[in-house]
Amino acid sequence: MDNIVSVSMEIISEQQNDIGETEKNVSEHRGRFSNKGDTYYLIYYDEKIFKDEIVPTILKIKKSSAKLIRKGKLNSVLNFVLNEKVSSSYKANGFEINLDIHTMCVERSLSSAGGNIFLEYDLYIDNIRQSKNRIIINFSII
Length: 142
Description:
It is a single chain. The chain is mainly β. It is about 0% helix and about 75% strand. It is built from no helices and ten strands.
């Protein structure tokens, strides 16, 4: 896949707090998928975060890391590095949160018809674990 292709995707995000309550969100998007060498890019516009603005989103995936970048009313850079705890940032509606993300799993499975991406991580604010999280992205070329 050394070119840009249009894709249809389903994004499943799960967040579990420390008392075991789980929130699950499922959304569908259309976007683009491409690669440059061993780095893959999934680009889409997220209409689900805010009702009044579409947020451009880029997921950059490597073998053992990923970066989720959003620019617009929500500005965030979430860094996922396998088996490491790394700093990330989140800015929205006039406030900023500095986060740490400890990533337990970065997986990608790609074929000529599409693929799957799986991220599993813990989210920390001020060194206190806030939640256990999963992002599952299933996409197919259209």
